[in-house]
Amino acid sequence: MTTAPSMDDMLGAVDVVDPYPLWQSLLDGGPLVAPDGSFALLSSHEHCDAVLRSPGFSSDRRNSTRWQAVLAAMSEADRARLERQRSFLFLDPPDHTRLRRLVSKAFTPRTVERLVPLVEDLTTGMLDRAEDPLEVVGELAYPLPVTVISRMLGVPEQDHVRFAGWSEVLAKSLDDTLSAADAEEVRLRRRAVDDFRAYFTELCAQRRTNPQDDLLTALVEAEDDGDRLSTDELLSTAMLLLIAGHETTVNLIANGTLALLRDEQLRTQVAADPASAAGLVEEVLRLDPPVQMTMRIPLADVEVPGGRVHAGGTVVLLLAAAGRDPAQHADPLRLDVSRTTAHLALSAGPHYCLGAPLARLEARIALTALARRLVDPELVEPSYRPNRVLRGPERLVLAAGALRRN
Ligand code: HEM
């Protein structure tokens, strides 16, 4: 007798360098639902979109049977600590709605558009100072988003480096959707969270006595209103903005760079035409998304395409597969900067990426600058991060002389 594969069997096989053959086979094979109703893997655009928009599915891991087992194995103190750290990415309405609303003003397309001069200056400065040979991740893709979100929050320049370290450790926790972390990883994470919270507690105290025109001051003022935001919520929100807005945008810029390296005509087009640059960003999101998958938890037993999942089960939504669904995107493997079909790389429904306008703006500016400056670039050393949820290259080294000096 053969036993049905578990979710860990299925997703444990993900190749971080090239997960696409696996996503394609799941897309071709249709939805996959465990016979015992414990999990489902959905890959089509239509199915993923429907779950993301449905109030019957939760983002709160406390509703997950799998997660409850993880919690049960923890000490009381660790459980309390996790409870304090919960960000609104992992909450349902009404708390989700209340917390998201507090920061959403800072991320509207109009507010974000005001950052254009800053992002352009930072990009130019980073490329002017870059070493030859150029390593795109370390010199541009990594520092650009962390500098922008730090400025928005109001973190002093000299501390950005510490931010990047914490963010990298914490981003790995997203991979826990798939498997438990080892003890050393858990220890590192715990330290990153403690350091992060201590750092922000101090910074918030400074803002309280000396308010500034930044996001942290806005959050502190909301906290001072009492019932709108608790101290734990304030710290979790600051941490969410840092993590959600950092690793993901790094990967978008790096994955976009790879697309530019592969196609000289695309470089010429993007260098000359802002609409093509914006189109390239959408196509990279669709074809090589920084967030490969997300998950939801059914609040009651539910029929999904392909079978039945019980309340507390895991529904994995393969956003990266959905981007290649021929039912949604004609000729899906072709990169077409004029394509207008909607993709799910930034999610859909109530948890739709809050930072989408900022991510798009940063990537558009960074990729335009690279398209204008790269001369016969040749990739000599790509390597990928060992993360199945947040996909992107760790290093992208180009052959010497690839960057035109302005
Ligand atoms: C290319 C870059 C980015 C990608 C691919 C991305 C992707 C996503 C996705 C897929 C989600 C939803 C996850 C789910 O539904 O389970 C999300 C949520 C979120 N993102 Fe982004 N993101 C990016 C950049 C940013 C930036 C720059 C920020 C802010 C600085 C940001 C802040 C957030 C926040 C706060 C949420 C939670 C929204 C909610 O739960 O209501 N993201 N992002």
Give an overview in words.
This protein has 406 residues and is an alpha+beta fold. The chain contains 19 helices and nine strands. The longest helix has 27 residues, at 183-209. Bound molecules: protoporphyrin IX containing FE (HEM). Residues 59, 88-89, 100, 149, 240-241, 244-245, 248-249, 252, 289-291, 294, 345-347, 351, 353-355, 358-359 line the site of protoporphyrin IX containing FE.
**How would the global form be characterised?**
globular
Beta-strand percent range: 5-15%
Spans where pLDDT lies below 50 across 5 or more residues:
none
Strand order of the largest sheet: 1-2-7-4-3
Q: What's the overall average pLDDT, rounded?
A: 89
Counted by DSSP, the helix tally is: 19
Provide the list of bound ligands, each named once.
protoporphyrin IX containing FE
What is the element string, with H for helices and E for strands? HHEEHEHHHHHHHHHHHHHHEEEEHHEE
The radius of gyration is: 21 Å
Termini distance?
Answer: 67 Å
Structural class: alpha+beta
Largest sheet: 5 strands, mixed
Count of distinct strands: 9
Estimate percent helicity. Answer: 40-55%
Sequence-ordered SSE layout with sheet pairings:
Blueprint: H1 7-12, H2 20-29, E1 32-33, E2 39-42, H3 45-53, E3 57-58, H4 65-72, H5 76-85, H6 95-104, H7 109-113, H8 116-129, H9 136-141, H10 143-153, H11 160-171, H12 183-209, H13 215-224, H14 231-244, H15 247-262, H16 264-272, H17 274-287, E4 294-298, E5 302-304, E6 307-309, E7 314-317, H18 319-322, H19 356-373, E8 379-384, E9 393-398
Parallel strand pairs: 2-7
Antiparallel strand pairs: 1-2, 3-4, 4-7, 5-6, 8-9
Helix pairs in contact: 8-10, 8-19, 11-12, 11-14, 12-13, 12-14, 15-17, 15-19, 16-17, 16-19, 17-19
The structure holds protoporphyrin IX containing FE.
Protoporphyrin IX containing FE (HEM) binds next to helix 14, helix 15 and helix 19.
